[in-house]
Design a protein that fits this description.
This protein has 461 residues and is of the alpha/beta class. It has 2 domains: 114 residues, Orthogonal Bundle (Arc Repressor Mutant, subunit A), CATH 1.10.10; 306 residues, Alpha-Beta Horseshoe (pyruvate-formate lyase- activating enzyme), CATH 3.80.30.20. It has a 9-stranded mixed beta sheet with strand order 9-10-8-7-6-5-4-1-13, sandwiched between helices. A 3-stranded antiparallel beta sheet has the order 14-15-16, with helices on one face. Helix 5 packs parallel to helix 7. The longest helix has 19 residues. Monomer. It comes from Candidatus Thermokryptus mobilis. One of its GO terms (molecular function) is metal ion binding.
Length: 461
């Protein structure tokens, strides 16, 4: 699949702040009114109504060796191993609290460790936490078990430890191979160590490798980023995520170290995106949508083709229908009609667990309207099309009446050739995939209110 004639001027028109829709409503809608007791009640209710439903588990490992200036994650730089030791102990305590209310028949179909830098754990800590999880949970026969790693400081023993406790997928940040760019963002990562990590992963039998790149970083040019892409294509990962640099110094003060004048101009940034999509699709990757690319035989591409793709807080996922239970500082759980996010500060996370309470800081209980809109947004972002009659049958509504305002907003995208309204279907064009977040915003009941508040979202292109 190749997107012909990418229109830079049209992309500029839609380059505005907007949610990534890893949840609906977006996280800024979460409320302090939803607390630990609400989360506990939701777990009990979920387990009662879905006693055999499969689970997706997320563990947030927030620690890093150094601060990457582009980072937008909830992370902590520490060189104190006692700090990590304490955190692992509290993670286990949180797991025990949740397991008290889960029936034994619930199996895990998906496990992910994110960060921070999960590979900042030493091999013994990896085996300890992994072994603990394997003891407390039963897994399906072919689970998706992924971990984010940083090639810097990585050893073969780290990789072997991950493999021994069941991980079969890895994702690693590259961002850019250009030394000048790496220096500007405080992430010196020679090409050789990335290649070494990939070689180890393949030797140890990891079934899927994902590489993360970022466009829009300081000193990037079309020519320099093309050289990075050439090297990445040679490495031949199963998946690629090419993220738009979210320059949000008002949310992440450390990004102020990056000088705005060193960033590519909006015009150059969009040309880098255009070149990236053309180069990767020509190399045989399928453009899934937003930032994601996958080889045609990868589960991600197959799931999109079969319309079973899903989105959660880890991005696109092939394991739809699982109840997501998340552990650790800032982690967000998602099941049935609720979201629950843990405290973002360690001291608050620890103190709630010490009190015998779930460390829930904010959350949200969805209304029926939220559930309907989430379904529509999810299918658009995953399938790149929507069948109105399917929504009508599922929710007992008349689509054109229920979403009259949304359809009105879609007209602009129709006029620009980004969306086609074809009878019973809403179809996103290949070019429209580049602005799918904007298209999804047409169905967001909260977006106008949130946009009037202080800047909270990254730009969509």
């Amino acid at each position: 699949m190749r997107i012909e004639n990418i229109d830079i001027e049209l992309l500029k028109k839609y380059d505005r702040p907007g949610p990534r829709y890893t949840s609906y409503p977006p996280a800024p809608a979460f409320s302090k009114d939803f607390g630990p007791d609400d989360y506990k009640d939701a777990i009990i209710e979920n387990n009662k109504e879905n006693p055999m439903n499969v689970l997706s588990l997320y563990f947030h490992i927030p620690f890093c060796d150094t601060l990457c200036y582009f980072c937008g994650c909830n992370m902590l730089v520490t060189h104190n191993r006692a700090t990590i030791r304490k955190y692992l102990d509290y993670l286990k305590r949180e797991v025990e609290m949740v397991c008290e209310f889960l029936s034994s028949g619930r199996k895990v179909t998906q496990l992910h460790w994110g960060g921070g830098t999960p590979s900042y754990l030493n091999p013994d800590e990896i085996k300890e936490l992994g072994g603990f999880i394997n003891e407390r949970f039963e897994f399906v026969d072919d689970p998706e078990v992924g971990v984010e790693i940083d090639p810097r400081g990585l050893t073969y023993e780290h990789m072997r430890a991950f493999r021994e406790v069941g991980f079969n997928r890895i994702s690693m940040g590259v961002q850019d191979f250009d030394p000048r760019v790496q220096k500007a963002v405080n992430r010196i990562q020679p090409e050789e160590i990335t290649r070494q990590a990939i070689d180890w992963a393949r030797e140890l039998g990891f079934k899927s490798i994902n590489l993360d790149l970022i466009y829009g970083l300081p000193f990037q040019t079309i020519e320099s980023f093309e050289k990075t892409l050439d090297k990445v294509i040679e490495l031949s990962p199963e998946r690629l995520a090419v993220f738009n640099f979210a320059y949000v110094p008002w949310l992440k003060p450390h990004q102020r170290v990056i000088k705005r004048e060193d960033l590519p101009t909006p015009d150059v940034k969009l040309k880098i995106l255009k070149m990236t999509i053309e180069k990767l699709t020509e190399a045989g990757y399928v453009y899934i949508g937003m930032d994601h690319f996958a080889k045609p035989d990868d589960e991600l591409a197959i799931a999109q083709k079969e319309k079973t793709l899903y989105r959660n807080f880890q991005g696109y996922s092939t394991r739809a229908g699982a109840d997501l239970y998340a552990f650790g500082m800032s982690a967000i759980s998602q099941f049935q009609n609720i979201y629950a996010q843990n405290y973002k500060e360690l001291k608050d996370y620890y103190s709630r667990i010490d009190e015998g309470k779930f460390p829930t800081a904010v959350g949200y209980r969805m209304s029926q309207d939220d559930i309907i809109r989430k379904h529509v947004i999810m299918r658009l972002m995953c399938d790149m099309e929507l069948t109105k009659s399917e929504v009508e049958e599922k929710f007992n509504i008349k689509f054109d009446d229920y979403f009259a305002d949304s359809i009105q907003k879609l007209n602009e995208f129709v006029e620009d050739g980004l969306v086609e309204l074809s009878g019973d279907k809403i179809i996103v064009s290949l070019m429209g995939r580049l602005v799918i977040r904007n298209i999804a915003m047409c169905f967001d009941a909260y977006i106008d209110k949130m946009m009037k508040e202080k800047p909270i979202f990254s730009r969509t292109v």
